[in-house]
């Protein structure tokens, strides 16, 4: 039995389309309730931000480790009166040992 090239192309195209449509469901976020507020700002994930009110953005640039820049973000969130924060980015810079982070603050 010989399979013609147009049939193979059609099947391959259908497979690619099906894969692309299936991948879209990976990006869908199911809402999750955030934890109860505490005296300190808490880090949340994107799925927990659907019911929260955004109050601003903060950045931090510190010498140390990734944990140090996370701690700096939490201190800035506490100072701003935020109950929650979502870290968008933690990245090392060109200078060794210097870390940069961005976060969104929520009430």
UniProtKB/TrEMBL annotation:
Keywords (A to Z) from UniProt: Signal
Positions of the YdgH/BhsA/McbA-like domain: 52-107
Keyword Nucleotide-binding carried by entry: no
UniProt key word Signal: yes
Signal peptide: 1-25
Pfam families on file: YdgH_BhsA-like (PF07338)
Descriptive protein name: Bioflm peroxide resistance protein BsmA
The organism of origin for this protein: Rouxiella badensis
Taxonomic lineage of the native organism: Bacteria, Pseudomonadati, Pseudomonadota, Gammaproteobacteria, Enterobacterales
